[in-house]
Amino acid sequence: DTGVSQNPRHKITKRGQNVTFRCDPISEHNRLYWYRQTLGQGPEFLTYFQNEAQLEKSRLLSDRFSAERPKGSFSTLEIQRTEQGDSAMYLCASSVDSQPQHFGDGTRLSIL
Amino acid sequence: GENVEQHPSTLSVQEGDSAVIKCTYSDSASNYFPWYKQELGKRPQLIIDIRSNVGEKKDQRIAVTLNKTAKHFSLHITETQPEDSAVYFCAEALDSSYKLIFGSGTRLLVRP
């Protein structure tokens, strides 16, 4: 399967801990996006990259959130000092040029 | 502002009937309107998209119509089948390479 890959699929952690998620986009896709989805809602945009450059960050992305795409390939999303409200599905998507975005299966984060 | 309103939130139809889901957007600069299908616990999957230079697009049993003047677009599914049961999300963006703004979703149930 050469689709968007996300790891881990599930993450359970205690409030206050730091977590990091990884996204491997489809090969040669130069754009990579992070979204967050809570139960019963549509995905909400967090941030996106073109190659290694982070082009936009949502107001939803507090200073506890940081995303990187160091070599323009995979990306990581880190949440520091997790809070209950961070519990959600974190989705990654990738695209190339003006083609549609393809999503990964997501990482489900649960904060105890 | 960035906002997409999606109706209805739930829709139940008899197998073989048609289903219509409607979305209204606010950003007149938007030019790209995709529809994603999300089954329980799975990734959002693109089923059809339309760009602002066309008013209608069809793909077998699925069609999307766009009215840029009124800022609304609709998904039409004909001859519905039980496997069409899922949550459908509309979205809008400046272009497919930019962030997607999603509606809140429509849960479609096709009764056998």
Largest interface: A-B, 25 and 23 residues
Main β-sheet of chain A: number of strands, strand sense, barrel status?
Answer: 7 strands, mixed
- Write down the overall geometry of chain B: globular
Note poorly predicted spans of chain B.
none
Number of helices of chain B: 0
Low-confidence stretches of chain A: none
Q: How many strands in all of chain B?
A: 11
Order of helices and strands of chain B: EEEEEEEEEEE
CA-CA gap between termini of chain A:
33 Å
> Counting H and I runs of at least 4 residues, what is the number of helices of chain A?
0
- Oligomeric description of these chains: heterodimer
Radius of gyration of chain B: 13 Å
- Termini gap of chain B: 41 Å
Q: Which structural category do the helix and sheet elements of chain A fall into?
A: mainly beta
State the major sheet of chain B: 6 strands, mixed
The number of distinct β-strands of chain A equals 11
Order of helices and strands of chain A: EEEEEEEEEEE
- Give average pLDDT of chain A, whole number: 94
The residue fraction in helices of chain A comes out at under 10%
The secondary structure category of chain B is: mainly beta
